[in-house]
Amino acid sequence: DLDHTLLHSDMSVFMRPYFALLGRRISDLLPMEVMRSHLDRGVEAMLRNNGGPKTNAEAFMEVFFDGLDVPKDVLMARFKAFYEEDFDQLRTYTQSKPEARPLVQDVFRMGNRVVIATQPMFPLVAVRSRLEWAGVADFPYELITSYEVMHACKPYPAYYQEIADYLGLPPEACLMAGDSIQMDMVAGEIGM
Known about the structure:
Helix content: 40-55%
Radius of gyration: 17 Å
Oligomer: single chain
Mean pLDDT: 96
Number of strands: 4
Number of helices: 7
């Protein structure tokens, strides 16, 4: 897990400046209240995604763009610019954990295959930024869960099964390390 496990990150604090910064990037295309409404719908679609054929990105896009008059390619270019140029400003709303890097080093030193199993509701570029903020971006992870590749969200067991399948391992051969009983420890339902 990333948030609260490797990086202090209170999403209730983080999301307000996130929306403000994103809103500034696209304010000439969408009013803030329209953007928030469509983002909320997209997030809900991802949270309902339970291992079906759609990636979380596809589930998000399907409902986010429904009813918008802005061309998808124009808005996606703005989102891309936001994550590449603006997102790092949000670092100040998180705090690295001094024990994160030594912990990850030890896990790799033991010869383990390592996955960053974070809630896959952000694009990979954003997750990589957050790993950098945590001081652990430079490790050779086998998988970093992001909305582009995952077909389910936490706390669905399908999320954890997809990770095990990606690794080609039975869930019983995997260990989930996280801070949340509700979100992370549900991995035990499939044998992790």
